[in-house]
Design brief:
The chain is an alpha/beta fold and about 130 residues long. About 50% of the residues lie in helices and about 15% in strands.
Length: about 130
């Protein structure tokens, strides 16, 4: 977070909760996107009714995310595009996807796996990403 969780709660939470409520009342799911280390406000997002969270899960601790939130929210997370995707091997990519599945996948919450390969990612690694989510 660029601001403290306390400040986020006092400045943004009520507005986001109001918007989430309108989305829920319209009968749709709430998807929320935020980059960076946001583990300190995930309970707030769940409380506000967020169904799926698109976050940089590799900036946080996957085990802690799973222990605290698995089954309570769907994680829409990408493989690490700063380290694993460009510099890892296909085996590293498979292992990272398996770790994400083990920590975050749950029928009660779920995991939407994704990846955003940049120009520096080899075709071999892109193929591994596509196969790793099966």
């Amino acid at each position: 977070l660029l601001i403290s969780p306390k400040t986020w709660r006092s400045v943004f939470k009520d507005s986001y909760a109001e918007m989430s409520g309108k989305v829920k009342n319209a009968g749709t799911l709430v998807f929320f996107h935020s980059d960076g280390y946001i583990i300190d406000i995930i309970d707030d997002l769940i409380e506000m009714g967020v169904d799926a969270l698109n976050a940089q899960v590799w900036c946080m601790d996957l085990e802690e995310l799973g222990n605290r939130f698995n089954g309570r929210i769907c994680f829409w997370g990408e493989l690490d595009r700063q380290h694993i995707m460009p510099y890892g091997t296909p085996d590293d990519i498979y292992a990272a996807a398996q770790k994400m599945k083990a920590c975050l996948s749950n029928p009660a919450g779920g995991l939407i796996g994704q990846a955003e390969p940049g120009l520096e990612v080899s075709l071999e690694n892109i193929e591994a990403v596509l196969k790793s989510w099966n």
